[in-house]
Design goal:
By secondary structure, the protein is an alpha+beta fold. About 35% of the residues lie in helices and about 15% in strands. It contains 21 helices and 22 strands. Strands 5, 6, 7, 8, 9, 10, 15, 16, 17, 18, 19 and 20 form a twelve-stranded mixed sheet that branches. It has a four-stranded antiparallel sheet with strand order 11-14-12-13. It has a two-stranded antiparallel sheet with strand order 1-2. Helix 6 crosses helix 7, helix 6 packs parallel to helix 10 and helix 19 crosses helix 20. The radius of gyration is 31 Å and the shape is globular. About 40% of the residues are buried. The N terminus is likely disordered.
């Protein structure tokens, strides 16, 4: 995609805007770095110069207080409970013949007769499933899975589906049920007890399967504040009612899974991976090697390059590879080879061998791919079954945003996402409006963590830099009139930057209201889009092609967007229903169904694997 500009083209504008408010050039550079995420200077200093000791800090406010980002929690899975069958058990026999006259007859009810076999049965299930079992069988006292003295065809279908759970990235042991064998030695009483216990166990595991297929095995919102998903309610009693009145058990249970092409493509990929052989040459995926350094991994990488040489590459670099192909030292003669390989893979040819270079040559190991696909299948169960059309799909690890309509990717653009210290959340919402030449409402976290230290020593800083300060009643006040030193983590003022060439949001933003204050927007910092690793923002999504995305969601042309931008600040509502997914998938299929793999920039996959392990441990039979 065409690069829209570079930092050198924008920098004079930013400095000019700062000078217009009476700021010196050195401070304009600091303003630029603060607004656009740094990257101009190559020193470890803060975006703001260290301030002197805060003035007039009141006791208890704490001059160094910061607003913290969400954290990752040690996942606690729901503990299983023993299903209490007491309410289902038949009443004790009447004490006298006279009392017996008032007891309703249960003669002929095989199910009611069998319930006594549950008196000492230990079946463990999730609390909501245990409750649903008792509620359903209290209202519907009959077998679902048993006919006569054996499991019926409905049960056979259910057991088969549960046994195929691995094809969906689920763990079959979570749904395992012992099927009663046909034994001539069992007494009728023993057989009845065995069947009623099988009935309850299969219903409990079918409900677990239906829940997991629809919503996933873990509650993502418990893992971290970076995850934000609405609940996907499931009528557990309704599931059993449906299964009791249909012979299409497989069809029904499989319908609980997401019904979108992406989910199916990931399942196909999982099956293909498990049937494939491991990579012959496996290179350390975290390899980082600069010219002059050495590593035993380098010959593996050079072997892969030599194996895939075409005529052009062979003519240019065949001799060097033949001579240095076994070297563990990254000789300067090898740098042009690596640069050529990087450029061919669509990366910036910097000659530094890092994880992305290794991934492009050696790929991801089979084990890592399988884990990524299983993680992706779990995450996809958190989203709606039908992703909607049209939709906007942002995949953070891929650093891309796409506008998809009627199964076609109409627009795909590079994006910048939040830094590891300012991570972008994982959620979905609906696009509501586009703002042209927007104001930038500075988030409280930036006011407190980045502006406040400067303001304590220079309270008029915001006045000179083109910001508006308002109090809780909406009254605009000079920044210089505020005693910033009196505040810590709670600042009772709002700060916004006026529309301008130097505005941090650029010429437009696309809003989908959410509690994380995340949206898509333009940026003056165009050079960031040239990088391979683009986790560089404060958390919002910066678009390389903001006009193209605005035109897509508004259903108009890029020329029309350009015309609207000529008329200053304005807002236009999006009248169609367009869901937006601010997603996080390290394995994701393209529109043809080919699954691509990406680096786990926030290390979230390992957090999810920990949660899945905790869930499996809680479900273990010993629980």
């Amino acid at each position: 995609m065409k690069i829209l500009g570079n930092k050198n083209a924008v920098l004079p504008i930013a400095i000019a805007a700062a000078l217009a408010f009476g700021q010196q050039p050195a401070n304009a550079q600091g303003l630029f770095d603060m607004l656009f995420g740094g990257g101009i200077r190559h020193n470890p200093q803060s975006e703001f110069p260290p301030p002197p000791k805060p003035r007039n800090v009141q006791p208890g406010t704490g001059g160094g207080v910061r607003i913290s980002s969400p954290t990752y929690n040690t996942y606690r899975a729901d503990k299983l409970v023993r299903v209490d069958f007491k309410s289902l058990l038949p009443a004790p026999p009447p004490a006298t013949a006279q009392d017996a006259a008032f007891v309703p007859s249960v003669a002929g009810s095989a199910f009611r007769d069998a319930l006594a076999g549950l008196s000492d049965y230990e079946l463990f299930a999730e609390p909501d499933i245990a409750k649903a079992l008792i509620a359903y069988y209290s209202a519907n006292p009959d077998f679902i899975w048993v006919t006569g003295d054996a499991p019926n065809s409905r049960a056979q279908d259910a057991v088969r589906v549960l046994g195929e759970a691995a094809s969906y990235g689920l763990t079959p042991a979570d749904y395992a049920v012992d099927v009663p064998a046909t034994t001539a030695s069992a007494t009728p009483e023993e057989r009845t007890k065995e069947l009623v216990r099988f009935e309850m166990a299969l219903s409990a595991r079918v409900l677990r399967y239906a829940h997991d297929a629809q919503s996933g095995r873990v509650d993502p919102n418990r893992m971290t504040g970076y995850y934000d998903f609405p609940a996907k309610p499931l009528d557990l009693e309704g599931v059993l009612k449906t299964l009791a009145h249909t012979q299409e058990v497989r069809t029904y249970l499989e319908s609980r899974h997401p019904q979108n092409p992406e989910y199916q493509a990931l399942r196909v990929e999982l099956e293909s991976l498990e049937a494939s052989e491991e990579n012959e040459i496996v290179v350390d995926p975290k390899l980082l090697l600069k010219p002059g350094e050495s590593s035993p991994e380098l010959p593996k990488l050079l072997t892969l390059i030599a194996r895939n040489l075409d005529d052009e590459m062979g003519g240019d670099y065949g001799e060097v590879l033949a001579r240095l192909g076994k070297s563990e030292v990254y000789d300067p003669e090898l740098v042009p080879v690596i640069k050529a390989v990087q450029k061919r893979a669509g990366m910036k040819g910097d000659g530094v061998i890092g994880p992305r270079t290794v991934a492009s040559l050696a790929g991801t190991s089979k084990a890592d791919k399988i884990e990524k696909v299983r993680v992706a299948l779990e995450e996809l169960r958190w989203l709606p079954s039908d992703l909607g059309s049209p939709r906007v799909f942002i995949n953070q690890p891929a650093f891309t945003a796409s506008y998809i309509d009627n199964g076609e990717e109409k627009l795909k653009t590079r994006v910048v996402i939040g830094k590891v210290t300012n991570q972008t959340a994982f959620f979905y919402n609906q696009i509501k409006q586009v703002d042209f030449h927007p104001y930038w409402g500075v988030p409280q976290s930036i006011i407190v963590n980045e502006m406040l230290p400067r303001l304590r020593s220079d309270p008029g800083y915001l006045d000179r830099a083109g910001y508006e300060v308002t109090d809780s009643s909406g009254r605009q006040i000079p920044s210089a009139a505020v005693d910033w030193g009196a505040y810590g983590a709670k600042v009772p003022f709002s700060v916004r930057q006026q529309p301008s060439e130097a505005n941090a949001l650029g010429e437009l933003k696309i809003l989908f209201p959410n509690k994380h204050a995340i949206y898509m927007h333009d940026t003056p910092q165009k050079s960031f889009f040239e990088r391979d690793m683009r986790a560089l923002s404060h958390g919002c999504i910066r678009l390389q092609d903001p006009r193209g995305m605005a035109a897509a969601v508004l259903g108009t042309s890029v020329d029309d967007i350009a015309e609207k931008l000529k008329h200053g600040h304005s807002t236009e509502n999006v009248t169609r229903v367009i869901p937006v997914y601010v997603a996080y998938f390290t394995a994701w299929p393209d529109m043809s169904g080919k699954v691509e793999y990406f680096d786990d920039v926030y290390d979230r996959d390992s957090k999810l694997m920990q949660a899945l392990d905790a869930t499996e441990a809680a479900r273990a039979p010993s629980t």
